[in-house]
């Protein structure tokens, strides 16, 4: 089997799990247009700290012992470039490269179609979060394994800023911060749960967990990695790059 399977023409075949102990497929979504970042053609292939942005997430997921296979979702125009990128990275796991959709949720659904049903857990991760560490994939998968009643487990951390609800430039409410968390990716789910959540989705959510919450299932939050930043605006680049270089220097 070729390690990288580009899915430009046909619907992807399922990716087999190479290690019987590994029970998680990671879907890295990188098919966005990067509008807020302001880079024509999206930001996934922009060089950040010496590598294309999305490469950092692929390498981190590949190094997590629970991960059996990877799916990379990219802009249709980037399929050949992404296939070449994957072929050139020192990845141990099989990778399926598939085209994404018009919004993040559609890209996640496209990635999910390429996941083998033989691997019981699936996690979605933003290719725009290059600081993710292998232990964060382990943490969300472990939380799911520890409690069979959960519909999902997501990385996040308690809010440290005060959050305001703002309408027309004026504050309309200040929610109790004691209950507020900011959530990131990875977001992990039992495969049958997230497949059902996508089938039933009636609206477009800003994350994957909201689809599972809409089914009335409990989703756990795991305080795993506070610096798991998302590269969204141009000014994020210097912060993310400095953190990646520091982590490399420290051998993390
Ligand atoms: N149609 C889309 C939209 C987003 N994403 C992915 O979802 C993640 C989070 O999205 P975001 O940071 O908003 O990226 P963009 O959509 O590229 O940014 P923008 O909204 O500024 O255009 C990114 O890794 C992005 O590539 C995707 O795979 N497919
Ligand atoms: C999924 C997410 O990263 C969780 O914080 C976030 O909602 C993605 O938002 P974006 O606007 O698509 O970047």
TrEMBL record:
It catalyses: 2-C-methyl-D-erythritol 4-phosphate + CTP + H(+) = 4-CDP-2-C-methyl-D-erythritol + diphosphate. Pathway: Isoprenoid biosynthesis; isopentenyl diphosphate biosynthesis via DXP pathway; isopentenyl diphosphate from 1-deoxy-D-xylulose 5-phosphate: step 2/6. The record marks 177, 230 as: Positions MEP for the nucleophilic attack. GO terms for molecular function: 2-C-methyl-D-erythritol 4-phosphate cytidylyltransferase activity. Pfam families: IspD. The record marks 36, 43 as: Transition state stabilizer. Belongs to the IspD/TarI cytidylyltransferase family. IspD subfamily. This is 2-C-methyl-D-erythritol 4-phosphate cytidylyltransferase. It comes from Granulimonas faecalis.
């Amino acid at each position: 089997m070729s390690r990288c399977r580009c899915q430009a023409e046909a619907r992807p075949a399922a990716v087999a799990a190479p290690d019987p102990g590994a029970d998680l497929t990671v879907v890295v979504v990188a098919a966005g247009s990067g509008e807020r970042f302001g880079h024509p053609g999206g930001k996934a292939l922009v060089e950040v700290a010496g590598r294309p942005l999305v490469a950092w997430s692929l390498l981190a997921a590949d190094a997590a012992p629970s991960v059996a296979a990877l799916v990379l979702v990219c802009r249709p125009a980037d399929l050949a470039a992404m296939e070449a990128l994957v072929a050139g990275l020192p990845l141990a796991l099989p990778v399926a490269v598939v085209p994404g959709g018009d919004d993040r949720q559609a890209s996640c659904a496209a990635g999910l179609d390429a996941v083998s049903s033989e691997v019981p857990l699936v996690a979605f991760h933003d290719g725009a979060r290059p600081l993710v560490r292998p232990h964060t994939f382990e943490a969300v998968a472990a939380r799911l394994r520890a409690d069979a009643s959960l519909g999902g487990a997501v990385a996040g951390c308690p809010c440290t800023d005060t959050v305001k609800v703002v309408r027309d430039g004026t504050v309309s409410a200040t929610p109790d911060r004691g209950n507020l968390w900011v959530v990131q990716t990875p977001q992990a789910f039992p495969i049958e749960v997230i497949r059902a959540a996508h089938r039933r989705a009636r609206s477009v959510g800003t994350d994957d967990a909201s689809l599972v919450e809409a089914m009335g299932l409990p989703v756990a939050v795991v305080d795993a990695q506070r610096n798991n930043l998302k590269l969204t605006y141009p000014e994020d680049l210097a912060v993310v790059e400095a953190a990646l270089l520091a982590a490399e220097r420290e051998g993390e």
